[in-house]
Amino acid sequence: MTEKTHSSPPAADVDVLIVGAGISGIGAAGHLASRRPGTRFTILEARESIGGTWDLFRYPGIRSDSDMSTFGYGFKPWTHRKAIADGHLILDYLQQTVADKRLARHIRFGHRVTGAEFSTAERRWTVTAERTDTGEHATFTARFLLLGTGYYDHGAGFTPKFAGVEDFRGRVVHPQHWPEDLDYTGKQVLVIGSGATAVTLIPAMAGRAGHVTMLQRSPGYIFSLPSEDVVAGVLRKVLGPRRAHKLVRRKNIWLTRSMYKLCRRAPKPARRLLIARVRRELPRHFDVDTHFTPSYAPWDQRLCVVPDGDLFKALSSGRASVVTDRIARFTEAGILLESGRELTADIIVTATGLNMSPFGKVRLRVDGLPVDLSDTTAYKAMMLSGVPNLVFALGYTNLSWTLKVDLVWEHFCRLLDHMDSHGYDTVTPVLHDPAMKRVPFMNLSAGYVERGIGAFPRAGTRGPWTVEMAYEKDVERLRDGPVADAALHFTGARRGR
């Protein structure tokens, strides 16, 4: 359990105010504690515990879909034998990080940030948070505001409007709100969806349920990986955890990036390779063409990873099955498909996706004027045009989330060093070329992205305004590149530019 007692309450006026105690917010705090031990910071967390996604989601089998050597922090080696880790192991890792870096004393739980306003005259943010226990409001001030809120709406998942859902006599559950009292032992379970959540749920539930059926409208690409990294285990024994961590991260980054580049540069051969791997995992009679042959190219949507082929093992054993069809309506006994077939169920799980929400729904203002996020352009995918002293972190869609987050917080620490050495108080990205074409922040064709990306900041098409989903390019500009840039406007009490 995360320590929640403090020798003194976290300060209400700080150098850096971090919103969110999930993997991004804890990462920011860890970098500040290591790189700038004199910096005063506070973390505001809406819930009563750390972990964000990894504490919120409680559905069976929840796990990472990236290897933990890259999904973990660069400053804290992942030492567990499992490379594709269960959710409780990831939560343990985050709690250990909080303990190692002595971050608990900086966290204020039960504070949901609702609004933040920057004053140019005062050179500070004033942040309003609602106390989740009393409904009262608390105010904090800070030089910098860091948003580690991710891009999912933690309040509600996405469920399409299904005709006749009220007629179903069983139980309908969304994975984001998994009931603690749900007993599916021996029950007929129907899981709607084919994404990462669905392919996690099905093998996890198949051991106890009577039968689990995955109902998908269309198939996606599914890739089997070993849950344990043998090379990593050997390197840890020979070199020790810290030195092995660096080598394993490099290896896994190279492998993942190579796979991605192959898929994008040679989609047809990559498609054949991915589908051939699925055929080897399933019985010879299995209809792979119908159920595991997508209509789109690899990485138009995110690939789903299954550890040790657990989904394919559940299908091969007969404990689970897959149906590819469209839903006509819910019935009393289950779901009627457009083909005329009816699937009966005791429990229906709507693994139909999540809702995107920019920056935890925090309302931003600058000098009294509201900030329309969709009107802003992302600078180095970490700051917003026209908004002073604000930094955010949104991870990769084609690689481990935390690789990008680590680079952003590293660059932020370098930015603070640069500003302090020059006597600057504020920094604002300025888009000097308003005619530059702007594009969506993410280019995935996934449904959740298409539904929600319009509310997010836009990306540019050149210079520091591009959003790179390429680790090697971000290393070049965030870790190795200079902080000073013609697009950044610095001001200070004694000097300005």
Automatic annotation (TrEMBL):
InterPro entries, per database record: FAD-binding_MO, FAD/NAD-bd_sf, Flavin_mOase-like
GO MF entries: flavin adenine dinucleotide binding; N,N-dimethylaniline monooxygenase activity; NADP binding
UniProt keyword annotations, A-Z: FAD, Flavoprotein, Monooxygenase, NADP, Oxidoreductase
Domain of life from the UniProt record: Bacteria
SUPFAM superfamilies named among the record's database cross-references: FAD/NAD(P)-binding domain (SSF51905)
Cofactor(s) needed by this chain: FAD
Family designation: Belongs to the FAD-binding monooxygenase family.
Protein name: NAD(P)/FAD-dependent oxidoreductase
